[in-house]
Request: fold
Amino acid sequence: MPSTNHEVPLEMFRDRPGLGPKVARDVLGLPVPDKLCWRLGPETVTAMGPQELRLDVSMIGEKTRKPEHAIIHEVQNSCSEKELSRIRESWPTYVTNLRKRFHCKVTLLAMCPDERSARVVGESVDTGHPGFIFTPVTYWPGMLAAAIDPTSARTWPELVLLAATSQLSEDERRRVLEMVPAAVASFDDDRGVIYYEFIRTRLPEAARLELEEIMTISLENFTWESDFALKHQAIGRKEGRAEGEAVGRAEGEAVGRAEGEAVAVLTVLAARGIEVDAVARELILACGDTERLTEWLTRAVSVTSVEDLFVDSDNARIVGADQ
Reply:
């Protein structure tokens, strides 16, 4: 089943089809035409027989409704032998299928978690046909940092957020993290909270605390243009961090992580205007099971009441919510 590490970055590309060509042209230096109108393309390609292959996301660049260029964007977090075998068979098919379907040039990009993975995944594939050597274009979030400046934090906030998840040098990290508040504020409330939480949970502890401090300072000095619930989240993080550090010294890092997840659940509910009574709030904050808290955080973005948070798909009370 696709993970958050896989799906959240893809949502950024699905929500903004122009992001793929932006990365291809401005970050990777590929000859992708500009001044095209980009839209989402198909996410399946037809193979022999009834089987369909499902790609991550495709974007079609058009001029006067005529396709001029297509981009396939994959998120590839694993470079195991099994995964390498799969992509080396399927990715050339993605490219040739879309080329035949839209009668235009096709570029396949793959975002990997780090430089080593990008190097392995990007190795050329000998298809067996003379002269047909397929080489995917790979990159990792650290390559995006050079393309970031304060203006692009507003214009291309996705690049800021993706770069923030990379292992950057100390100077680069601070520069990228300082742009996160403006980047997050570019999205609607629910999506902004999800993207921020995605970044925060993937940072090393020192960088996470640094980001939370930056968010708190930003809220004191930045005039937000929307009723953005991240304001409540940043304040909650500051309080949760103080309590979490005290508890963590006594009971360990796991307790601090659980507390952070609990605050995240309450923050998302507050952002969506879901009323949380004292009993439910106490239940969430008292939960020490990080897996259950992660499940509640996922459900918090779609429930219509706090009671729904504790009920599974069969309308049964979730174990642990009957205290």
In short: The beta strands are 37-40, 44-46, 52-54, 57-63, 66-75, 105-111, 125-126, 133-134, 137-139. The first strand starts at residue 37 and ends at 40. Residues 222-240, 242-252, 319-323 have pLDDT under 50 and may be disordered. The longest helix spans residues 81-102.
